[in-house]
Amino acid sequence: MTRQTPPSPHIATFAAADSAAIPLHVIDADDLAAIPAGARSWAAACGFTAAAGTTLVVPGEGGGIAMALVGQGSAAQRRRSRFVVAPAARRLPPGTYAIASGLTGPAQAETALGWLMESYDFARYGAPRPAAARLVAPNDVGAARLQAIADGEALTRDLINTPTNDMGPADLADAAQALAQAHGADCTVTVGDDLIAANFPLIHAVGRASASAPRLIEMNWGHTGPHLTLVGKGVCFDTGGLNIKPGSSMGLMKKDMGGAATVLGLAQMIMALNLPLRLRVLIPAVENSISADAFRPQDILTSRKGLTVEINNTDAEGRLVLADALALACEGDTDLVISMATLTGAARVALGPDIAPFFTDDDGHAAALTAAAARVADPVWRLPFHDPYEEMIEPGIADLDNAPGGGMAGAITAALFLRRFTDKPYIHFDIYGWTPISKPARPKGGAGIGARAILDALPDLLGLSR
Fold this sequence. Notes:
Blueprint: E1 22-27, H1 40-45, E2 55-59, E3 65-71, H2 75-79, H3 88-91, E4 96-101, H4 106-118, E5 134-136, H5 143-161, H6 169-182, E6 186-191, H7 194-197, H8 201-207, E7 215-221, E8 227-232, E9 234-238, H9 247-250, H10 258-272, E10 278-288, E11 300-302, E12 308-310, H11 318-331, E13 336-341, H12 345-351, E14 356-360, H13 363-376, E15 380-382, E16 400-401, H14 410-419, E17 426-430, E18 434-435, E19 445-446, H15 451-462
Parallel strand pairs: 1-3, 1-4, 4-5, 8-10, 8-13, 9-10, 12-16, 13-17, 14-15
Antiparallel strand pairs: 2-3, 6-7, 7-10, 11-12, 14-17, 18-19
């Protein structure tokens, strides 16, 4: 059963089936003969070549629209882009469209989801864009599931796109509590000095310098089935602390809570779809600021797990707050822990903004995620928990070093650091959380990377039925 979730005001919903919907024909650039006979002369006269995302309105009697054509490009173009039909949602005249030809099987689902995601508009601080054209969901694509995925993606984008003056630790906690209330989940928040009493010393140390107190957000949903724990890095802004970032590196730090935003979007998908599992979400929400009580380079801090950490760079704070949350995650009954974090620049250097590297010691989990990513056009790539690099995170004076020198294997050493705080099946995602240049279905701004792949892989990761 799919739970009915109020749609995001920033994303469209599928249109109801309507006999008056405008027929939409998706045309392959390698097969222009597929253009309906009544439109071929008009398409030729207009120079329509079915390049990816291009559209053509075919006029009908009385000035109406008889049909619309949208190009999906050639096979070579489709290999270089995802959601190639999605731009039609913004390029076609307002109205309701129904796919009449040109797509079958998985391509229909990708197109329908891309159409919804293309409609996203973040207009909290400015005038909204004109509404996108609406699409009737094709038969047999699982419209309710696609809508839940689009709504979860919209939540993630909204949270990342909101600047820190409106999305600090307190605001992130409010967003989690609102999501929990909408789905009948429980949500508790541990704040400020209460973190010390509750034994979250690293979360407190990183966040105590901010005017907005640090928090540990915990949400629980579901009563039966396997237990999934999602942990998301919630650094709402990262100055770098006393190892302050240069201005050029600080400009996008509102997105440093992208891991938290992505797990909340994924949680919304899971709860909206009423998946048969127990879900726990843990978010350490902090702002890494500078003040008289900021934590310092060379400090040695003791974690929730008891491991000591030498601070060699206060700008490597994300792994610290995640460490306490991961330790908590593994204290309880859980079948799988997944962390998501905008953690290292090294991951971006290796794979760029589109591909989320992930780490796991379980080959079956890796295969499930890789296969799911291909099915849902949400690319991920496995990187290794390379055991010989363990010595790089061992400084000698303490159990662990939060920022090993040398500048090599930064994504791997960060992942190895996090693994030290887990003793349950564990997958770590090092995501970017941002689309730097607008692409089909992915406008410039916040982005949920890896969530759709995880959602599709859950049956294989947790033994659920498909």
